[in-house]
Specification:
Layout lengths: L7 H13 L36 H6 L9 H19 L2
Helix pairs in contact: 1-3
């Protein structure tokens, strides 16, 4: 069952994406890979598989490789995204 795109959780997520990454195009899509998110379906029907991190070319080359990591700059941007998302979810 797909996650909803017409509820308050999706609204907060899409609003946060627009605020933090104004150049991003927001659209739901089908994720083909297996993630740990499948275990969260018992908690909520809406599980959005999204990371607030920017992943640049150098970061992509290190995904699933030796010494897998993202840059400190992109990691900190992801933390900022999560802070903003929590604020939006709280209604502030």
């Amino acid at each position: 069952m797909p996650s909803l795109t017409n509820d308050s959780a999706w609204s907060a997520l899409s609003r946060t994406i627009s605020e933090v990454y104004p150049d991003a195009v927001i659209a739901p899509y089908l994720m083909m890979g297996a993630t740990d998110s499948r275990y969260f379906r018992t908690l909520t029907p809406n599980v959005y598989r999204f990371t607030g991190n920017r992943i640049d070319v150098e970061d992509r080359e290190r995904i699933h490789g030796t010494n897998e990591r993202i840059s400190v700059k992109n990691y900190l941007a992801g933390i900022g995204f999560c802070e903003r998302l929590m604020t939006n979810l709280a209604g502030s």
